């Protein structure tokens, strides 16, 4: 939420996100140079991510939550490109939906656009050759989600250390709250992403080829 | 849906034709000073000013504005509650018991919570000022001004265009699934995944069509368009000066009220 983070941390998280975004833009430029047709495709995928995040996932407790979709993006486009897309989508969420904010953008990019996709991608890479595809996708999306929330707890704890016990104590406090509320959501996000891929393969088996990620498609068919 | 409303308001309000750069400078500097403050007074001041500008200068429907404000208000109250219970240690103001567990309200915690709460509400008001008075398309010029790479701006523009196309589509599909009645949790998850995958396939289809359309207009990886606006119009010095004067006064107030607390 806008205005929550102190100025020093606002600057810090912007600076921490910058190198990843620069790398992502570089990757993006390279992809577009090689395959010009991927630009409109990436753009509509960005719009899809925004629309998806404005839809509500059904949740057990009755409250509704928004899917982050970063696991999905990381698997399809790779984590660096997902980071750049998340910058655009987060900016639109702030300006069109009044979700998040401009000062908290840096911190949100770091937790949702960088740590989430990279964690999801890592899990995907590691599990891909060990476990089945469904389990891999589920684990990647759910753990990517959890990584996002853990990072958010760290960010909050660093910004507001407890007077007694410091950062560690407030981290335990914040992550305790997040664990209760976000763990079920991470599992739901994992399930949704898993089913999403299942339906995609049923309806359009060449979905990965469109994004020039052949090796993933071949490993999939096995 | 709220995004459509915000977009329409941004296109129709009274401050629509004010130079985008001035609005961005005003909103962002006020926001930065607000989050740098260590007392709840500057945020309150920023909130009042932003609200006056939104309601009386831009003439935005107060109902819409207060509806938008509900979220930061709720968030502010929650953080006030949490901070007053868990922050601070040697200055208890009041304690009470729930289920044989003693909760102590701490003085530092309440002050911290008030500061955070007011900062959240004031920051959101500044953001709403920008979001409600400036259409996204105008902000692209601002992004170019900030030397954001063309690829990113171009992507952002196409994304913006397609958000509204897909929102309508998603809305229709969601409604169609709702029409079939309430179901159990398992089905809800399945329906949501189905909706998301179908929507994704449609976006791919749309992307292919877009590429064909762009290709047939000699697209070579770059979108060049004529700038129909006046070439690099100068920023209005008087207005800029007025804004800067206000910001300096605001900084002065922030420094003067440093660490001032309510209780």
Characterise this structure.
The complex is a heterodimer of chains A (222) and B (263). With 222 residues, chain A is mainly α. Chain A has one domain (7-216): Arp2/3 complex 21 kDa subunit ARPC3 (Orthogonal Bundle), CATH 1.10.1760. Chain A is 78% helix and 0% strand. Chain A has nine helices and no strands. Chain B has 263 residues and is mainly alpha-helical. Chain B folds into two domains: 1-147 and 235-263, no CATH class; 149-222, no CATH class. Helix content of chain B is 71%, strand content 5%. Chain B is built from nine helices and two strands. A two-stranded antiparallel sheet of chain B has the order 1-2. In chain B, helix 2 (20-36) runs parallel beside helix 9 (237-256). Chain B is flat, with a radius of gyration of 24 Å. Chain B starts with a helix and ends in a 7-residue tail after the last helix. The model of chain B has no long low-confidence stretch (mean pLDDT 80). Chains A and B meet through helix 1, helix 2, helix 4 and helix 7 of A and helix 1, helix 2, helix 4, helix 5 and helix 7 of B.
What is the ordering of alpha helices and beta strands of chain A? HHHHHHHHH
Strand content bin of chain A = under 5%
Low-confidence stretches of chain B: none
Number of helices of chain A: 9
The whole-number mean of residue pLDDT values of chain B reads 80
Quick one: overall form of chain A? globular
The fold-level CATH name of chain A is Arp2/3 complex 21 kDa subunit ARPC3
Number of distinct beta strands of chain A: 0
Helix content of chain A: over 70%
Count of domains of chain A: 1
**Helix count of chain B, per DSSP?**
9
Q: Low-confidence stretches of chain A at least 5 residues in length (pLDDT < 50)? A: 59-64, 212-222
Major β-sheet of chain B, in short? 2 strands, antiparallel
What is the helix content of chain B? over 70%
Number of domains of chain B: 2
User: Which word captures the global form of chain B?
Assistant: flat
